[in-house]
Structures are given as structure tokens and as C-alpha cells.
Amino acid sequence: MTAILQEAARRRTFAVISHPDAGKSTMTEALALHASAITEAGAVHGKAGRRGVTSDWMDMEKARGISITSAALRFEYRGHMFNLVDTPGHADFSEDTYRVLAAVDCAVMLLDAAKGMEPQTLKLFEVCRHRRIPVITFVNKWDRPGREALELLDEIQEKTGLRPTPITWPIGTGGFFHGVVDRVVDQAVRYTRTPGGATKAIETELTPEQALAEIGEDWERAKDEVDLLSAIGSDHDQKAFEAHESTPVLFGAALNNFGVGRLLDAMVDIAPAPAPRPDVKDDPRPLDRPFSGLVFKVQANMDPSHRDRIAFVRVCSGRFERGMVLTHAATGRPFATKYAQSVFGQERATIDEAFPGDVVGLVNATALRPGDTLYDGSAVEFPRIPSFAPEHFWTARCRDSSRAKQFRKGIEQMEAEGVVQVLRSEIRGDQSPVLAAVGPMQFDVVKHRLAGEFNTEIAMDRLDFSLARITDAESAPVLARQRGVEVFTRAIDGELLALFTDEWRMRGVLRDHPGLVLKALLADTRG
Ligand code: G4P
């Protein structure tokens, strides 16, 4: 095996998906703590002044208590290199999430033991399903009164369609959460809390006799349930997991670091390593070919003292070396990588080399956009990450005409980062482009960032459209003449989009003009 294949085999690149408040930040800290990437919980990411990433729009993030930025945390565990890619925490940013999930090989679905499958979790799960990303489930907050474990399994199965296959099973619950049965090695493990969860929990392996003597009734009950699981065949099946038919389930409490080590072990043992990524011609790019990478996120001004634009690139093949001059597939232009970094929170470390699965932050990435490919030597281009169907449309204009230039720059920036889609038409002109979003909060981000980073106040007006369809040059003029319809060119890809007030209107237009081309966009819930 070549060095590159060996390095790829020990990579685990994943994201944690959850509903806000399920404990994603706590879990992130616990994982990093467990893996000894940082020395003290709270140093990476968290609430109440603990948040690591600073930037102008973080004020908004703090005020709303949501995470709207993404970066990647790297840490090593059991000889494996983990890349944890942070996903935005709000449903409005599902478009962003979709792009982030294009960069991972596995997802950890984090559930709050008392709440089970919450709406946002399900939405994010759907994205994983669409991208065929294997999902490991972690039931968090087991140290608090919650639901019955068996009941939660039923809910997971019912809502996701995946067969839950617990690889750990809780012994006791709430204040009496003693530990878990590790079903892989058939072993009881007792957890002992360390104050504040700031260090790893102490794990003691118990024989069945010890468990009976020391834990008693809760152990007996757990054992009965484990026997039941085996009887109904709820055992881990690697093929079914990778084929997106089953989800391994673990139980724990991220706050006390209970069960986090088992999660990391599961990632090492069963989560998929990077595999060859299919290119635009559907030919998988072998991992040991020269470097290729996919830009999955572009973010400007993450740090006010840097004022730069960082492109996050997932390495798909080959070895990345800082200083390499790559080719930007979209333009054929060279791209210098002198300032490659790994970025998470405030931490920025220069990265000198990277392998398939790793995430590299490239600074000064003005020309790069989400979905772009970079390569070295032999040319390759990966499929673009599809855009979500926008459902909200607002016009934006600059309040002070002397700031028109900054306004234009700011809108271009938001468009390049994919914060919103920008739609233009001759009728409306450049002064007031139409911004399109999956969720209305994306507009708040635009407003806030234009004020903060471009010193430009904008006025926005909602347009009475709720549905977009892709059309073509022949149908466009016919559509443009219809009442309740407007046609735009989408800046990012030049697609012609027809906007309709509602579905009823679209059906009416189609009835009168049956030959019109109207194609649905990705993830349009209305088909
Ligand atoms: P998020 O990023 O998914 O939004 O969740 P976050 O980690 O911020 O956790 C939300 C709340 O849940 C926090 O409490 C956190 O301490 C708590 N929590 C997370 N994991 C566990 C767990 O395993 N057990 C228990 N009992 N609680 C857990 P908070 O009071 O909102 O914030 P904080 O002041 O404690 O940070």
C-alpha cells in the first residue's frame, strides 16, 4: 500500500448533526478532550463567552444562540486522524449544511435522550440520506431523566427508516446512569464522573458478577434488554450500516464525558475511511492519484483582525503540501497555497501536508467558490454541489447611494460564499438585485454582514414569490408575460429561474402553456 493509501485509511472525516441544544458543542469539546487535542473542555467551542470563533456576525450568532459558521477540528485518536467538520445549527442554513455534508464520510446524529428525534435532526438526517452518508446515532444526556431506551429505538426506526443496532446499551438512567454494556465485546463498563466533566471520565470494566454485586437491579434490567436486542437481531451489520439501512446506536452523556470514548472507538472501528470520489464523468478519482480537493465552504472575515477569505477544501485524492501551486478547475487558473491552515474556532495552525479526508483552510481564496475543484497535475473536476430550491425572495437596495460600490461588493461577497443566491434581471437592474434563500434567516445574515463588514445599511423588501423553477431561453419570454411570474438569471450558474407566487399559479400557467420547460430544483419539498 502506498503512503497515501495508508494515510487515507486512517482518516475519519465526519460531522455531528443535531437539533439546537442537544449538546453538539458539549460533544465537540468532549471528543477533542478525549482525543487530547486540547487540554481543557471549553477551550474550543461553547456558549456564554466560550465560543471560539470571533467575527463581526458572531454577535448575531451569540444573540440568537445558534451556530452559523463552519470550520473543522482535527484530532488524533488510536492512531487515526479525525476531521470533525462543524455544521450550522439552524434549519435556515440547510443549504450551507448540505455543502458541508459534501465533505464528510460519516455523520454522528446526536439526540437529546428526553426529546428523541427533533425536527431539525430529521431535516439534517434527510440530507445525509440524500448524500448516502452512513449515520451513527448517539443518545446524549442519559444522565438526565429521559425516555425509555427501547422506546427511543422505535422512534429512530419510525422516523428515519433505519434499523437501529445498539452497540452500547445503558445501565440505569438519569441520576442512576452507571455505565453501559458494550455489546461488541459483551462487557459492562462503569463510568465515574470527574468534576465538571473537564477531564475524561473514569471507566471501569466489570465482570457480570461484579456488575450484579455493585450495580444490582439496574444491571439485571440492562442485561435482560440486551438479551432481547440479540433475540430480535438488532446487532451491528457493517454492510447494512454502509448501505444506509441501519444505524449503530450509542448511549452516553457528553457533559460528563460518559460514552464519548466508545463513540470514538466506534468511529475507528466501523466508520468509513475516505473512498475514491466520483468526478463529473462519474469516474471515481483513485485516492493515490495526484492531489485533488473540493471546496465546500467559503467564508470571509472570520476574524476581524485578518479580514480575509478562507476556502475550506476537503482533500479527495493525493498528498497536499503547503506551497503547492494548484489548478482551479473552473477557470484553469493557478492557485497558490502558501497560506494553508487548519482552522477551528480561534485556533489557526499552519498546515504543511494533508491527505484524503483532511480539511484544509486556504487563505486569500478570492477566486474560489463552494463546489469548486482544485487539482495538481492530472485534471479532474468533481460534480458541483447542487443548490437548494429557494423559497424566500427579497429585494435588497442600498440606503445611502454614495455606498453603491460597497453595496455591490458586499452582495458579490455574499453570493460567492453562498450565503444567499443572487438573482438578476434587466428589468430590476443592478441597484436592487433579488436575493433568494431557503430560510429567511439568511437575509438577516446578509443585512448584518453588509452593515458590519461593508459599512453599508441596506433596505430589504419581501417579494410575493414562494416557488422557483429552472426554465430555458425559449420558455422564458412566454413566462415573463404571465401574471404572477418573473424570470431571473441566477448569478452563480447562469440558470434561468422562473419565480411563481405559488404552486397554484404555476399550475395555471402550465395549463395555458403546456409546452413550457419548468424543472424542479433540488430538495424542493413540493416536487
Ligand atoms: P448545542 O451546541 O447542541 O446547542 O448544545 P450545547 O452543547 O450548548 O448544550 C446545550 C445544553 O445541554 C447545555 O446546557 C449543556 O451543558 C447541556 N448538555 C449537553 N450535554 C449534556 C449531557 O450529556 N448531560 C446534561 N445533563 N446536560 C448536557 P446549558 O445550561 O444550556 O448551557 P451551559 O451553561 O451548561 O453551557
TrEMBL record:
Subcellular location, record wording:
Cytoplasm
Q: Which InterPro entries match?
A: EF-G-like_DII, EFG_III/V, G_TR_CS, P-loop_NTPase, PrfC, RF3_C, RF3_dom_3_sf, RF3_GTP-bd
Provide the Tr-type G domain boundaries. 9-277
UniProt keyword list: Cytoplasm, GTP-binding, Nucleotide-binding, Protein biosynthesis
* One GO biological process term: regulation of translational termination
Spell out the NCBIfam families in the cross-references: prfC (TIGR00503), PRK00741.1 (NF001964), small_GTP (TIGR00231)
Quote the PANTHER family the UniProt record gives.
PEPTIDE CHAIN RELEASE FACTOR RF3
Q: Any idea what job this protein has?
A: Increases the formation of ribosomal termination complexes and stimulates activities of RF-1 and RF-2. It binds guanine nucleotides and has strong preference for UGA stop codons. It may interact directly with the ribosome. The stimulation of RF-1 and RF-2 is significantly reduced by GTP and GDP, but not by GMP.
Task: Report the protein name in the record.
Answer: Peptide chain release factor 3
Q: Which organism is it from?
A: Streptosporangium roseum (strain ATCC 12428 / DSM 43021 / JCM 3005 / KCTC 9067 / NCIMB 10171 / NRRL 2505 / NI 9100)
- Per the record, the gene is prfC
